[in-house]
Amino acid sequence: MTRTRPTNNSLTRGRQKLLFVSILLLAFCNYSIAQDSDQDGVIDSIDLDDDNDGILDVNECTGPNQVTFEFKGTFGVIPVDSTGPCPGQQCFQNNTEDLQSPVAGYGYGDMNGEGRYAKTNNFYGPFLHVSGILWPDSLIGHTTGTADDAYLAVNGSTTQGVFYRETLTVPQNTTFEYGVWFHNANGAGGGAPEIEVVLKDAGDVVVATVTGGPLQPSDPFEWVEVKEPFNSGSGTTFTIEVRNVSTTAGGNDFAIDDVFFREVLPPLCDTDDDSIPNETDLDSDNDNCFDVIEAGHDDPDGDGILGTSPVTVDADGLVLGQGGYSGQQLAVLDSTDTEACCGPPGTSTDTDGDGLCDVIDPDDDNDGVPDGDDSEPLNKFACADTDGDTCDDCSSGTFDPSDDGTDTNGDGFCDAGCIESLCDDGDPLTENDIEFLAPDSTVCIPCAGTPLNCEGLIISLDIAPVVFWENTPVDLSSVLDISYSNGDPVTGTGIFNLLDSEGEILIAGASEIPFNLPIGGTYTLEYQYTETDAGSGSVTCTDSASVTFKLMSNDCE
Fold first, then answer.
1. Where does the pLDDT of residue 28 fall: very low under 50, low under 70, confident under 90, or very high at 90 and above?
2. Which of 326, 342, 358 is the last residue of a domain?
3. C-alpha R_g of the chain
4. Which run of H or of E encompasses 107?
5. Could you tell me if 55 and 325 are in contact, meaning their C-beta atoms sit under 8 angstroms apart?
6. What's the CA dihedral at 212, 218, 223, 228 to 10 degrees?
7. What's the mean pLDDT in 426-445?
8. Is 58 helix (H, G, I), strand (E, B) or coil?
9. 447 is in which domain, residue-wise?
10. Taking a C-beta distance cutoff of 8 angstroms, is the pair 526, 441 a contact?
């Protein structure tokens, strides 16, 4: 008798479920692996620049450079004057610089002898040596890659010697990476220079070294990074030195740039704790200055992406044809350094005086309203009227369009925008009526004359609230109470000028205010006058007084 084995449907269903779950897990894993943060067509697991900001991902998790000498190790810039021919060695004499802290054993000067150095750039480099082939114009500084970007040119000594030295104070038990960028000065022939970066502790004992080179002339004629990790342990004071290892008299010519000693942060670090890893964060330190700018690169359209978008990338996800991927990224992770966007201290506008230049300040006038929402971002006394209730959204003390002031009568308009006492003799205004609201204040300006008998003469401008009826200009005589000083009889004449919020004259010699001024605008009424004190020798003085007001539409029902 033949028996047929029954089908285990529950087992089959279980396997189906397991298969389904496995597919889901695989799909989830594939999704994670296939993430493309910058949507450039290269997935993050392959992309060397996940946010297209011109900074390699491997460099997005390093702390600020601890090196301070020589413009934080960059050797700064040397201006280029290309207006005329450069007369030979005079180019060296006029357009190179000594180190800020020279090291004994090496000398600053022309590069025709061994043991010499000079700060130069690609424009003046070819004039350093009589041969004319060393430090050619194709050798461009590593920091920014621009014509004025300086580097340190070195004609190596015939004995091993230090040509750069700086002592640093750093935190204990911290992992750093230290090093320098290194370049052969001759791409066509010559020798193979070799350098060494040395770390010494406070007792002048060597604790770490890393060697760069020998760089053969046949090597790619480009900057090579020489670096090594180092943990400070219990130490806090270390000296970084760069010295020549090769000692041949000929062909021992090279350049260095961007000396660094910086903390190594954990992978996928998040400097500003905004839950966005640095490698996908366009502003890693949250100082409102894009990383691409702080790295010394160009971003003409201001979107935080290297160059002008849309960009094209290579198979590794690196942006093509827009520069980038060089330099130290000096201030990328240092929120206290905003010079890349603001310039040197004191050279840019800081409207509210909070230490943030307007370029990076999210609230230029410090009125609590982001500039993007602020109708007058440079006027702390005004922000916006989002809900159109004729009351400034900052009336309650904070930016809140839904609660921008007290509404005593519940008419939907805040009291500051609808003052019953200003309605025409208590009669409700119609929807098209406008109130002329201004502080009930007196502006007193001393007479500008210098004679003593002119002392004490003042003019008063007292501006009172008034209602503008539709299509009806208002005579200034109904708005202003003009009086002169008490005491000796005074006579005076004057004219009115109406100015906008920028101080531009809208109407000169005005005798009335037109109805068609934009609602919500802020204006200044200026009275230019001449007065004569008839009782004090008929002294005539000329001066002006002004008062600012705002036009507001209202419905006081």
1. very low
2. 342
3. 36
4. strand 107-108
5. yes
6. -20
7. 38
8. helix
9. 435-553
10. no
Does 117 fall in a domain? Answer: yes
Where do the H-state alpha helices sit in 147-211? none
Q: How deeply is 163 buried, as exposed, middle or buried, from its count of CB atoms within 10 A (0-12, 13-18, 19+)? A: buried
Closest by CA to 547, choosing from 499, 494, 477, is 499
H-state helical runs in 226-273: none
Q: How many angstroms separate the first and last alpha carbons of the chain?
A: 101
Q: Quick: pLDDT tens for 222-281.
A: 899 999 999 999 999 999 999 999 998 888 999 999 999 999 888 788 989 999 999 999
Given a cut of 90, whether residue 290 has pLDDT beyond it is yes
Instruction: Give the residue-averaged pLDDT of 218-225.
Output: 78
Q: What is the pLDDT of residue 32?
A: 40
Domain count, the chain: 3
- Spell out where 233-370 has E strands: 237-244, 253-264
Asked if 279 and 237 sit in the same domain, the reply is no
Position 250: which residue type?
G
Q: Give the HSE-up count for residue 293: Cα atoms under 13 Å, Cβ half-sphere.
A: 22
Same domain, 144 and 195: yes
CATH number of residue 141's parent domain = 2.60.120
The H or E element spanning position 292 is: helix 291-294
The model's pLDDT over 376-407, given as tens digits with 9 standing for 90+, comes to: 787 765 666 666 655 666 655 556 666 565 55
CA angle 472, 474, 478 (to 5 degrees): 145
- Joined together, the tokens standing for residue 351 give 């409207």
Backbone angles phi, psi at 14, to 5 degrees: -65, -40
Question: Using the 8-state DSSP alphabet, how is residue 202 labeled?
Answer: T
| 136 and 195 share one domain | yes
Backbone φ, ψ for residue 66 (5° rounding) = -85, -15
H or E stretch covering 399 = none
Residue 417 lies in a domain: no
297, 324 contact by CB (below 8 A) = yes
364/361 Cα distance (integer angstroms)? 5
SS (H, E, C) 96-159: CECCCCCCCCCEECCCCCCCEEEEECCCCHHHCCCCCCCCCCCCCCCCCCCCCECEEEEECCCC
Quote the tokens at residue 140. 């461009």
Residue 356 lies in a domain: no
Domain edge (last residue) among 342, 377, 411: 342
- Stretch among 26-30, 67-71, 391-395, 420-424 having the lowest mean pLDDT: 420-424
Q: Kindly report the number of other CB atoms within 10 A of residue 6's CB atom.
A: 6
249 CB neighbour count, 10 Å cutoff: 12
